[in-house]
Design a protein that fits this description.
With 406 residues, this protein is of the alpha+beta class. Helices cover 32% and strands 21% of the residues. The protein starts with 9 loop residues before the first strand and ends in a 10-residue tail after the last helix.
């Protein structure tokens, strides 16, 4: 916390304004998965979007966090928080905070805002953590109670809109998945079906390998010694994470001249890109994106591939096909390596897929694109809301902008 606080505010230690219960893990034979006892939360791994997710229950709790307490992660990652919606046992990875002379919602937002400072406090040892004394002595800028309540109400209202928008996105994602699964098995308007190695499909469809409808170009192993401060983007796996093309995610650049010397690996708007490496046992690869229209140009790095449809009208269909469970379940059955999963071009292209006539592929792509656009619009709104909240927290929780109290 800055040593300067706004007029009328005070710098207060957390231990002066809140009760703190440091977690203590119970005996392992007292917690279970069959709902005996009370919920048991060990650490950040149990945190959900708003409230923690119960994985274990405890019959003989050592330390109990009351309902509505703020659960604070005291071990890496230090400073992450969640709101407790039930009385629960807490392990050594957590502390439970309840406001005494501070409004609980204000405390929640203040702790969220101080995350970076907690991170810094927890560093400097072989095991990233903070102890009870450090937590109790941590300073927060605290306004008078009426101002606390007003600030908390503003930030909570933004949180509610963010939560509502995220739920809308989740529902649209579920709708898209269900719609695509339906279209990939029943198509549009069919009444006659046949058996195939992929199950029942419309009679007019065929089963082919992906290589029958698309080609693949694998990226080039550019050297990190070639990276420059400015130039053409080197598109790496991180730029495709979560099926979202993000050129600002840990960007690396190559000299502009490389677009001339390595033309085979050029990437432009509208291209389909796929990540080929991830963690063994996890689905953190196989991400597929269409490069957005506003993207200028980039170069394809190793372990990223470009999928080139043999007909332009197939692009959206192929994108959704390669994101479907039908395709991904087969894709994730590959992945060599004990720690790192690596896909080969032949594995990617050799998977059997349902192939409708070209005009129906276009219609399927058009149908799903409407849902995709709705998701993109909601995602853009969510991003703006998160930026608004970040700005409001910076202004309101530092007293840079003072709220009017009736």
């Amino acid at each position: 916390m800055s040593e300067m606080v706004p007029e009328g505010w005070e710098g207060k230690k957390i231990g002066e304004i809140a009760s703190i219960i440091m977690g203590q893990s119970p005996s392992s034979d007292t917690y279970n998965t069959d709902r005996k006892g009370i919920p048991f939360f060990q650490g950040k791994a149990d945190f959900g979007a708003k409230y923690p997710t119960v994985r274990y229950w405890c019959t003989a709790p050592s330390k109990i966090a009351p309902k509505d307490a703020i659960l604070f992660s005291v071990r890496a990652p230090v400073g992450d928080i969640n709101r407790n919606n039930t009385e629960a046992c807490i392990g050594r990875g957590l502390a439970a905070l309840s406001g005494v002379t501070v409004e609980q919602d204000f405390l929640f937002h203040s702790l969220t805002f101080s995350k970076k400072e907690f991170d810094a406090l927890g560093q400097g040892s072989t095991f990233e953590a903070i102890n009870g004394s450090e937590l109790r002595n941590f300073l927060l800028p605290i306004p008078p109670l009426p101002e606390q309540k007003k600030i908390a109400a503003i930030l909570t209202s933004v949180d509610e809109v963010i939560e509502s928008t995220q739920k809308q996105i989740d529902k649209l994602q579920d709708l898209k998945k269900a719609t695509m699964n339906e279209l990939l098995t029943k198509g549009i308007g069919h009444t006659e079906f046949k058996d195939s190695e992929l199950g029942r499909i419309p009679k007019s469809w065929e089963v082919k390998t992906l290589s029958d409808i698309a080609e693949i170009i694998s990226g080039y192993a550019f050297s990190s010694s070639d990276f420059v401060d400015r130039g053409i983007l080197c598109i790496r796996m991180g730029n495709l994470y979560g099926n979202v093309f993000d050129e600002n995610r840990s960007p690396a650049y190559l000299p502009d001249s490389f677009s001339v010397t390595h033309p085979k690996f050029l990437v432009s708007a509208g291209d389909l890109l796929l990540s080929m490496t991830g963690t063994a046992g996890k689905r953190d690869y196989g991400y597929l994106v269409i490069v957005p229209e506003n993207f200028n140009q980039g170069l394809l790095n190793q372990r990223v591939s470009k999928i080139i449809p043999k007909h332009e009208e197939m692009t959206v269909y192929i994108r959704e096909l390669m994101r479907s469970d039908l395709y991904l379940n087969e894709l994730f059955s590959f992945g060599s390596g004990t720690k790192q999963a690596n896909l080969s071009a032949s594995q990617i292209m050799g998977i059997n897929v349902p192939v409708p006539p070209l005009d129906e592929q276009f219609m399927i792509g058009k149908s799903i694109s409407a849902v995709v656009r709705s998701i993109a619009e909601k995602a853009s709104m969510l991003s703006q809301l998160k930026s608004l909240k970040k700005s409001l927290m910076q202004d309101l929780l530092t007293g840079k902008v003072r709220v009017k109290v009736d």
